[in-house]
Write a structure and sequence with these properties.
The protein has a single domain, classed as TIM Barrel (Alpha-Beta Barrel). 51% of the residues are buried. It has 280 residues and is an alpha/beta fold. α1 crosses α5 and α2 packs parallel to α7. The N terminus is likely disordered. α6 links the parallel β8 and β9. It contains 8 helices and 10 strands. The site of zinc ion has 6 residues, from β2.
Length: 280
């Protein structure tokens, strides 16, 4: 269910942050490991080879808040916190997980996808079965992506040009090439601020979690995005008082949004951020 992000993104100014898409040991039954040498090499090749690039053209820093999988608590209180601040987020939905309960949370159902879309939030693709791209043959990956898209389009008729997030942050070379021809963009779990020329199929994103973006390093990340006039993309999972290692609290999420707005960031879903940046 969760992203394969084991490394802490500390302070962007410290130079200490490390990639969050490393493939080391799993920590629980829901985790997926690297799956051997070939998938590992496939991921490494995929993340290094850009098939589409674009240059961000922003006149003010932009923040996007995204949710993966997504648990019930991302819907409420997660989306509600965004609504309360007058902003919208992006929800990457793995349609095969709808309503399923794992050791950490219960995934929201199709009704929540429809409700979020009706409230102006963006619905993105996250694979139907939520399998790591680098461990699927390209044809199976394409079929799973098509199933995800079809399921979401049944719920939200008229959905087009969807954005995608890699389950577990894991990509693959041919899988990424397929995505480049199929979706608007792909989001990784590689921490950093997007600025200047960027790989549209490996958008950097920082996890809002105890080992990623927290109340303590929030301002540093906002500083980095502001200095670069860049695009800071965040992702998280559950939103509750006692979140999983992959989620955050209501308090932190509300503070992230409030501070970004106070600092005059545009807070936009991924599709609107791309529009704002002049990326077709
Ligand atoms: Zn996921």
């Amino acid at each position: 269910m969760i992203e394969d992000s084991r490394k802490v993104a500390t302070n962007p100014a410290s130079g200490q942050q490390r990639p969050q898409d490393s493939q080391d040991a799993s920590t629980g039954s829901d985790d997926v490991g690297a799956g051997g040498l070939l998938p590992r090499l496939n991921h490494m090749a995929g993340r290094r080879v850009p098939f589409r690039t674009a240059t961000l053209g922003l006149d003010q820093p932009v923040l996007s808040v995204t949710f993966d999988d997504f648990p019930q608590s991302a819907f409420d209180p997660g989306a509600r916190i965004l609504d309360d601040h007058g902003v919208r987020g992006t929800f990457y939905a793995a349609s095969g997980l709808f309503g399923q309960t794992n050791s950490r949370w219960t995934v929201a159902g199709a009704d929540k996808v429809a409700a979020l879309h009706a409230r102006g939030h963006e619905i993105g693709l996250h694979g139907h079965a939520h399998k790591p791209a680098n461990r699927m043959r390209t044809a199976a990956f394409a079929a799973d992506l098509a199933a995800n898209r079809a399921a979401l389009r049944r719920i939200v008729p008229g959905l087009t040009r969807e954005n995608y997030a890699f389950p577990y942050g894991l990509c693959g070379l041919m899988q990424k090439r397929h995505l480049a021809a199929t979706v608007r963009t792909c989001r990784s779990v590689q921490p950093g601020v997007n600025a200047g020329r960027m790989d549209l199929d490996f958008i950097k994103a920082v996890e809002v979690s105890v080992r990623g973006l927290t109340a303590d390093n929030l301002e540093s990340w906002l500083d980095a995005a502001e200095a670069a006039k860049g695009w800071l993309v965040l992702f998280t999972h559950d939103v509750c008082d006692a979140p999983s290692p992959y989620g955050t609290t209501q308090k932190v999420l509300a503070r992230v949004v409030a501070r970004a707005l106070e600092r005059r960031f545009a807070v936009l879903p991924v599709d609107a951020a791309l529009d704002r940046a002049g990326i077709a």
